[in-house]
Amino acid sequence: MKIEEQIQLNTPSAVLERAKEKQFPPIRIEPSKGWISLKLDEVWTYRELLYFLIWRDVKVRYKQTVLGIAWAIIQPLFTMMIFSLFFGGLAKMPSDGVPYPIFTLAALVPWTFFANGLTQASNSLVGSANLIKKVYFPRLTVPLASVFSGIVDFVFAFVILLAMMLYYGVVPTVNLIWLPALLLLALTTALGVSLWLSAMNVQFRDVRYAVPFLTQLWLFATPIAYPSSLLSEPWRTVYGINPMVGVVEGFRWALLGTETALGPMMGVSAVTAVALLVSGTYYFRRLEKTFADVV
């Protein structure tokens, strides 16, 4: 067959005609326009890929490291020691009636989960550029995997927290049953912010330099080294606009039995976290069609 005849047979009109003859409905692939639906069912369809990416992130994180998973424990533990020395020892910062090291560590465990997830996920799309360019799959799975993989680190750090509580003679309260909901709030916050930053990082590579600075500012804007009880109402409720405030104070309330009122502040934190997640998902899906071309 001549080349001219092959070209004629493979023109769009000829392909459509053959599809009609065989009763195959034609499929047109084109970029979406405007604000599109979230299509979360695609993420469920590709759940095996999500599991693979989570496992890959966990393995790569500690591959060829001397201490391995111990880094999940060292980071919050050493930060707790530094805070206890300077804020608890020198600055005499109040700790709501509990030993300051436990007061700080109970906040650092969920904070470390959030901060590491934010750092990993914000650069996840750029780090997976080769995969994104080669095959189609829901791009949401990439930052999702980066955040979910941090749960492994959280579990190890949480075990150390329980051991420290036993050492100081602090018994968890019955409010411990609320910990899954508080972890979900931390997960929602990390995902919401990560979707915004990961999508922006594809367009503007300055984001990867801004994330460490943003995380450091967020650390001191969250009541980790100090209690939110230093604020009076209504400022304590307004403080809940930072969703990690609800997470940190919620962990202390559930584990240590602190008397900080969580009602209005927790409600504001939950609303903010959900708003970040929903808006971040829509923003991510809106820019998703450009990832393969820009990344």
List the helices and strands and how they pair.
Blueprint: H1 3-9, H2 12-21, H3 40-45, H4 47-61, H5 71-90, H6 100-122, H7 124-127, H8 129-134, H9 141-148, H10 150-167, H11 179-203, H12 207-220, H13 235-239, H14 243-256, H15 263-287, H16 291-294
Helix pairs in contact: 4-9, 5-6, 5-10, 6-9, 6-10, 6-11, 6-12, 6-14, 9-11, 11-14, 11-15, 14-15
Portion in strands: under 5%
Kindly state the mean pLDDT as a whole number?
83
According to DSSP, the number of beta strands is 0
Please tell me how large the radius of gyration is: 24 Å
| Sequence of secondary-structure elements | HHHHHHHHHHHHHHHH
Number of domains: 1
Helix/strand-derived category reads mainly alpha
User: What percentage of residues falls in helices of 4 or more residues?
Assistant: 55-70%
The coarse overall form would be globular
> How far is the first residue's CA from the last residue's CA?
40 Å
Total helical elements: 16
Uncertain regions: pLDDT < 50 for 5+ in a row? 2-10
The profile of the biggest β sheet is: none
Description:
Its main location: membrane. Keywords: Cell inner membrane, Cell membrane, Membrane, Transmembrane, Transmembrane helix, Transport. InterPro entries: ABC2_TM, ABC2_TM_bact-type. This protein has one domain. 69% of the residues lie in helices and 0% in strands. It has helices spanning 3-9, 12-21, 40-45, 47-61, 71-90, 100-122, 124-127, 129-134, 141-148, 150-167, 179-203, 207-220, 235-239, 243-256, 263-287, 291-294. The longest helix is centred in the middle third of the chain and has 25 residues, at 179-203. It is globular, with a radius of gyration of 24 Å.
